[in-house]
Amino acid sequence: MIVREDRDDIAVLRIENGKVNAIDLELLEAMREEMESLLRQRPRAVVLTGTGRNFSAGLDLVRLIEEDAEYLGRLLPALHEALVGLFTLPLPVVAAVNGHAIAGGFVIACACDFRLVADGSTKLGITELPVGVPFPPAPLEMVRTVVGSRRTRELVYSGRLFTAGEAHALGFANEVVEPDRLLDRALDVAARSGAVPAQAFELTKRQLQEPALERLRRHERFAPEVARVWADPHVQASIRGFIQKTLRR
């Protein structure tokens, strides 16, 4: 699910989970395990990318409605843990967004320090509200950190998908790169940041992230309510309707 390749002391992590790299419990657990490994081994930097035409299309909604309440009860805490673990990893993390990054996939990219996006037909955005589900606290803070509060509201409420160029204008993408150059350029950015003394980078990153983490600590009180709403029968019906509409396209 997470395939690792080391390139000159830069860890390249590739998401490989089905056709669209959907996020499920096992992928989140694999991410957590990989973060723990990176903390032990301390490469200079990390590049996170996807497979084929998808970085990640977000949570596996089909599985979400097919599983029982126990699965949802484990999924949302695992999502929180994986996102915060990635966000606070004391290493430079570059997202090489090779394709569609939607909903949870968009949020994972926001948890990285830099985002390079492949030019072309890539679709990017956060579609939770059109699906009918509320945002857990961590995804909102990941997005807010990258694009700011006003644009977070625009993205969240509209659920609109953006092109790579539009995502650059929004502040999500640091660079838009030709697809065949994406990984090489991500490795260049990772090497540049990884050349900074590790203690200097880590302390600076902690200071930059502290406002978001402080907000997250305050907003964690919403987590139980979010879980309750996700499990509500009306919300589950909304998810089914979204899946059916998507499959008809």
Polypeptide structure, described:
It contains twelve helices and nine strands. It is an alpha/beta fold and 249 residues long. It has one domain (2-179): 2-enoyl-CoA Hydratase, Chain A, domain 1. The protein has a six-stranded mixed beta sheet, with helices on both faces. It has a three-stranded parallel beta sheet with strand order 4-6-8. A hairpin with a 2-residue loop joins β1 (2-7) and β2 (10-15). α6 crosses α7. The longest helix is centred in the C-terminal third of the chain and has 22 residues, at 198-219. The chain is globular. The protein starts with a strand and ends with a helix.
Any chance you could write out the topology, listing elements then pairs?
Layout: E1 2-7, E2 10-15, H1 25-41, E3 45-49, E4 54-56, H2 61-66, H3 69-87, E5 93-97, E6 100-102, H4 104-110, E7 114-118, E8 124-125, H5 128-131, H6 137-147, H7 149-158, H8 164-170, E9 175-177, H9 182-194, H10 198-219, H11 223-231, H12 233-248
Parallel strand pairs: 2-3, 3-5, 4-6, 5-7, 6-8, 7-9
Antiparallel strand pairs: 1-2
Helix pairs in contact: 1-3, 3-6, 4-6, 6-7, 6-10
